[in-house]
Amino acid sequence: MASKVDTDKSRLDEAARAGWLYYVAGNTQDEIARKLGVSRQSAQRLVSLAVSERLIKVRLDHPIANCMELGARLKDRFGLRSCEVVPSDPDSAGSNIGIALAGAAEMERHLKSNHPKIIAIGTGRSLRACIDQLPQMDCPQHQIVSLLGNMTPDGSGSAYNVIINMADRVNARHYPMPLPVFATSAEEREVLQNQKPVHNILLLARQADLTFVGIGNFDDNAPILIDGFLSRDEMRVLRKAGAVGEITSWVFNRHGSIIEGPINDRVASAPLLPDRPNLVVGIAAGPQKVAAIRGAIIGKLINALITDEMTAEQLLED
User: Fold this and answer.
1) I want to staple 75 with a disulfide (CB 3.0 to 4.6 A). Which of 83, 145, 197, 292 is the partner?
2) What's residue 6's pLDDT?
3) Are both 219 and 300 inside the same structural domain?
4) What pLDDT sits at residue 59?
5) CB atoms within 10 A of CB 142
């Protein structure tokens, strides 16, 4: 149960957002209500609270202001549909709690919809952290589908495949991908994906109303290497070809183009398609991921982003 201090802080955070949207971004109260997912009356009260608590002066006197400005700049510069930037903790640069809370809030906002939705989910540490922050919900109207297989090279389950954890937490129908992350060959991948249950899951993934994915870096500490999905020799080959990151094990270059070759030919995940019409939210932060995030944005592999302050500042550097 949240303490009164936590509740008050959350209320001030919402008031700061409402104040920024009204006084800085020039939104109407109806627009603020829509963006924050509250009633018009609640939006009006939040703006009033921002004033009464002296958050509004010549500028917004709250740490969230810089984050919102960074988010607006990233959205405008890269043509993103949405961009949420959370404060960075300089004493805990490796912490992902901020983006986990923001990611969970974005997921919860969609899960609260009474209209049935298909929600596609990738994998990774950041997504796992988001799921851990989700409240218990009852959402039988929704379907949650995995974008990639849940088996490691030795046949064991992947620790960061999150679909079952999410489905348990929100009580939604779920469709795990019963495949290895990588097939042994392109021919084997075709055989596996032509199985009727897998074919149906891939079709469901293509129909997703919204998608959440992690974005992996491609250095010596890359999860795809550490977790044993690729060898160091394979990593060297891909880096030589220009690899900067991966999403659901699809490896791409700084332009966001999938790197052609025998390694990506074995990826058993749902196709990673650019410029999707529906919301595709990338959740990632950290200096080691800047190149990967930038490539994913430029290539339109994602059209929305949740990241932290330091990462946002580096993404805006020329």
Assistant:
1) 83
2) 64
3) yes
4) 46
5) 22
In this prediction, the residues of the chain whose per-residue pLDDT falls under 70 are 1-7, 57-63, 89-94, 152-160, 318
**Could you identify the residue written with the tokens 């997912």?**
37
Looking at residue 308, the DSSP 8-state letter turns out to be: E
How many other C-beta atoms are found inside a 10 Å radius of the C-beta of residue 165?
16
One-letter amino acid at 249 equals S
Any idea what DSSP says for residue 65? H
Interatomic CA distance for residues 120 and 210, integer angstroms: 6
Tell me: do 26 and 163 sit in the same domain: no
Residue 303 to residue 283: CA distance in whole angstroms: 11
Q: Do 131 and 80 sit in the same domain of this protein?
A: yes
Give Cβ neighbours of residue 231 (< 8 Å, ≥ 6 apart).
225
Contact 282, 302 (CB under 8 A): yes
> What is the rounded CA–CA span in Å between residue 49 and residue 43?
10
The alpha-helical segments, DSSP class H, found in the chain are 4-19, 29-36, 40-52, 64-78, 97-111, 125-133, 163-170, 186-193, 196-206, 223-226, 232-240, 290-298, 309-315
Is the domain of 189 the same as that of 228? Answer: yes
Q: What is the pLDDT of residues 53-108, one digit of tens each?
A: 878 764 455 557 889 999 999 999 999 999 999 988 665 656 788 899 899 999 99
Domain that holds residue 114: 73-315
Q: Which two tokens mark 33?
A: 């209500």
Does residue 84 sit in the same domain as residue 32?
no
Does 200 share its domain with 306?
Answer: yes
